[in-house]
From TrEMBL:
Gene3D superfamilies: 2.70.98.70, Chondroitin AC/alginate lyase. Signal peptide: none annotated. It holds the Pfam family Hepar_II_III_C. It is found in: Cell envelope. It comes from the Bacteria. This is Heparinase. Residues 311-556 form the Heparinase II/III-like C-terminal domain. GO terms for molecular function: lyase activity. GO terms for cellular component: cell envelope. InterPro entries: Chondroitin_lyas, Hepar_II_III_C.
Length: 561
C-alpha cells in the first residue's frame, strides 16, 4: 500500500513513539544496583584482536594525550573521564576502549600501572553511572570485547584489588547488555551486542546454558542481518569488514576451547567473504556506498588472509542489490537498491544508480563516501544524491531524510522502486540497465541508467534518461534541470580536452578520456568525505541538461594508450 507523504510521516512518528514507550517499560530505572550479581574469580581466555596496533598512539596515551575520533586531547595530567571532550566521535572512541589494542606495544611496568589507573578512573567515574555515551549499547559492546581481548595487558602484574574491580565491572556490563539487547533497533550495533555477549560467555566463567543461549541468539541475529548473498542488511560495504574483525576471533575462541561453534557462525563468515571481495577494488579499497568510509589496507588484509572461499567476486548481490561489471582490468560497481527497512534508513545514502569505476590499481570514478569522524552536518551532506556518481533532478535527493530530532535521520519519502536488467556476452560486453522512481512523486520522472564495459575493458559506455512513468518523453509539465555527476578520486588529475571531453590521468600514467556531447560538461569543485586524513577538496565532472528539451544523455570513458 502506498502512503502519501503526510501519512508516511504520521506512521513514522507513531512507530517511533511506540518504540520509545516500549523500550522505557522494558528498561525501567537504569541503576547499577539493579544489575548486581556475583563477580567471577578469573578470566578463561583472551580472544585475539585482528586490528593493527600503533606504538605511537600507545606512547601518546601513556603521556596523557589521546588521538581519537579524528581529534587529539591533551589531558594535562587529569583523567580524560573528568573533563569536557572535543566531540561525540571522540567520546565514543574513548569510552569504547578500542584503543587498548595499541597498548600491546607497552613493555615497561610503568606503562601497565598507568593503563590500570586509566581503567580505574573509568570505573570510578562511569562504572556505576548508567547513562550517557559511555553506556550506549554499541559502546558497551565494544568495551567488553576490548577489555576481554586485551586483559593480559591490563592485568599484567595487577594487584588483587584491581583484578577484582576489573572483573566486577566487566560482569556488571555483561549483565546490563543482556538486559537491553532485545530493546535495540535494527542495525550493526544490535549484532555487535550479540557478538560481545557470545565473547563474554566463553571468555568468562559461565554455565553451559548461558553459553548455549548466547550462541543461539547470536545465530538468530546473524541470520537476520547477514543476508543470503553475504551482504550486511545495512548495505554498507564496510559493515562486513568490521563484523568479520570480531567474528573471526570469536570463531577461533570457540574452537580453541572445544565449545560447539554457533551453527550459523561459520556459514555466515563464508558468505561474507565473497561479498567483501565484491566491493573491493583492485587497489585494495572498498567501494564507497551507504556510509562506507576509508579502509586502511592492513585492516582489509588482516581479514582477507583468513578467506578460505577463494574464487572470483560475484557478479550480483541480489539481496542487498548491487551489480558488479568486469572486463579486462576494468571494474564497475553499481548501486541498484534502496534501504531495506525504516531503521536501516538512518544510515542509508540516496545513491540509487550511482557507480564506482576502477581500472587496474586506480580508482577513477567514485562516490564521495562518508566522513569517519566529522559532525552530523557533514554526515547528512554525504548522504545526499549529489554526493554520489549519479543523476540529481532540481538539486534534490532521490530520498528525503527527516530533520526531526525525535525521528532521527530516517528516510521519510516513499522508498523507490528499482528495476534491474543484466546484459552480458562473455568477453564482449558486461552491462546493466536499471531504473528507479525516486523522482516520480516530486517531478513525475523516472531515472533510467544503462552502463556497460566493452572492448576488452577499454571502453565504458553510459546512458542516462529521464522519462515519464509511462516511458514517454517529458513535456512542459515536467520541466526540470538535471545534473549527472561523476565524482573523481582525488589522486586523479583532470584537464579539459574540448568542450565535451576531459582527460583523467592516474599517478602511474594510466589515462581515460571522458566524453559527452549532450548537455553542458564542466569540471567543478567537489568534497571527498572518505579520505583517511579527513574531509578534503577534490573535483568532479558534471553534465547539466534540461529535462524537457534534452531528456537523455550518452557518455563514454575510453582508455587512452
Amino acid at each position: 500500500m502506498l502512503f502519501s507523504s503526510e501519512r508516511r510521516l504520521l506512521y513514522l512518528y507513531l512507530r517511533e513513539g511506540w518504540r520509545r514507550f516500549s523500550r522505557g517499560l522494558s528498561l525501567g530505572r537504569m541503576a547499577a544496583l539493579r544489575f548486581a550479581g556475583s563477580t567471577p574469580d578469573r578470566l578463561i581466555v583472551a580472544p585475539t584482536d585482528l586490528r593493527a596496533i600503533d606504538p605511537f598512539v600507545a606512547e601518546e596515551i601513556l603521556q596523557g594525550r589521546y588521538p581519537l575520533g579524528g581529534r587529539a586531547l591533551d589531558t594535562e595530567g587529569d583523567s580524560p573521564f573528568e573533563i569536557d571532550l572535543p566531540s561525540r566521535a571522540f567520546a565514543m572512541k574513548l569510552h569504547s576502549f578500542t584503543w587498548l589494542r595499541h597498548l600491546r606495544a607497552v613493555r615497561e611496568e610503568a606503562g601497565f600501572v598507568k593503563l590500570r589507573q586509566i581503567i580505574d578512573d573509568w570505573i570510578a567515574s562511569h562504572g556505576r553511572n548508567m547513562g550517557g555515551i559511555s553506556w550506549e549499547a554499541d559502546v558497551v559492546a565494544q568495551r567488553i570485547i576490548a577489555w576481554l581481548s586485551h586483559s593480559p595487558v591490563v592485568l599484567r602484574n595487577a594487584e588483587r584489588g584491581f583484578y577484582r574491580r576489573f572483573l566486577k565491572s566487566l560482569a556488571l556490563q555483561v549483565r546490563y547488555l543482556r538486559h537491553i539487547a532485545e530493546t535495540l533497533p535494527d542495525g550493526e550495533a544490535r549484532l555487535r551486542v550479540r557478538i560481545a555477549l557470545a565473547v563474554a560467555s566463553v571468555s568468562m566463567p559461565a554455565s553451559a546454558s548461558v553459553i548455549r543461549k548466547a550462541s543461539r541468539r547470536l545465530d538468530l541475529e546473524l541470520d537476520r542481518q547477514v543476508l543470503p548473498d553475504g551482504g550486511h542488511f545495512s548495505r554498507n560495504p564496510r559493515a562486513g569488514l568490521e563484523l568479520l574483525l570480531d567474528l573471526l576471533p570469536l570463531r577461533q575462541t570457540y574452537v580453541n576451547l572445544g565449545h560447539d561453534v554457533p551453527s550459523r557462525l561459520i556459514p555466515c563468515i563464508d558468505r561474507m567473504y565473497p561479498a567483501l571481495r565484491f566491493f573491493r577494488h583492485q587497489s585494495g579499497e572498498l567501494a564507497l556506498f551507504n556510509g562506507a568510509t576509508s579502509v586502511l589496507a592492513h585492516e582489509l588484509a588482516s581479514v582477507l588472509r583468513y578467506d578460505e572461499t577463494a574464487g572470483e567476486p560475484f557478479r550480483s548481490l541480489p539481496h542487498i542489490h548491487f551489480e558488479r561489471l568486469s572486463l579486462g582490468d576494468t571494474a564497475i560497481i553499481v548501486d541498484t537498491g534502496r534501504p531495506l527497512s525504516v531503521d536501516l534508513s538512518r544510515t542509508a545514502h540516496a545513491g540509487c544508480l550511482s557507480f564506482e569505476m576502477s581500472s587496474g590499481r586506480n580508482r577513477f570514478i567514485i562516490n564521495s563516501g562518508a566522513p569517519k569522524f566529522a559532525g552530523e552536518r557533514f554526515r547528512q551532506m554525504a548522504r545526499a544524491t549529489a554526493a554520489h556518481s549519479t543523476v540529481t533532478v532540481n538539486d534534490t535527493s532521490s530520498l528525503r531524510f527527516s530533520k526531526s530530532k525525535f525521528l532521527g535521520p530516517v528516510v521519510t519519502s516513499e522508498l523507490p522502486r528499482v528495476v534491474v536488467e543484466r546484459k552480458d556476452e562473455p568477453g564482449v560486453i558486461d552491462a546493466v540497465r536499471a531504473s528507479h522512481d525516486g523522482y516520480l512523486a516530486l517531478f513525475g520522472l523516472i531515472h533510467e541508467r544503462d552502463i556497460g564495459i566493452l572492448n576488452g575493458g577499454r571502453l565504458v559506455r553510459g546512458r542516462d534518461r529521464l522519462s515519464r512513468e509511462d516511458g514517454r518523453e517529458p513535456d512542459a509539465a515536467h520541466a526540470a534541470l538535471a545534473v549527472a555527476r561523476f565524482h573523481v578520486h582525488p589522486s586523479i588529475g583532470m584537464r579539459r580536452h574540448s568542450d565535451s571531453e576531459i582527460y583523467l590521468t592516474a599517478p602511474d600514467g594510466e589515462g581515460w578520456l571522458f566524453a559527452c556531447r549532450d548537455g553542458e560538461v564542466a569540471i567543478e569543485e567537489d568534497v571527498f568525505f572518505a579520505d583517511p586524513s579527513g574531509i578534503r577538496t577534490s573535483s568532479q565532472i558534471t553534465v547539466t541538461f534540461t529535462v524537457e528539451s534534452q531528456p537523455e544523455i550518452q557518455w563514454t570513458l575510453i582508455r587512452e594508450g
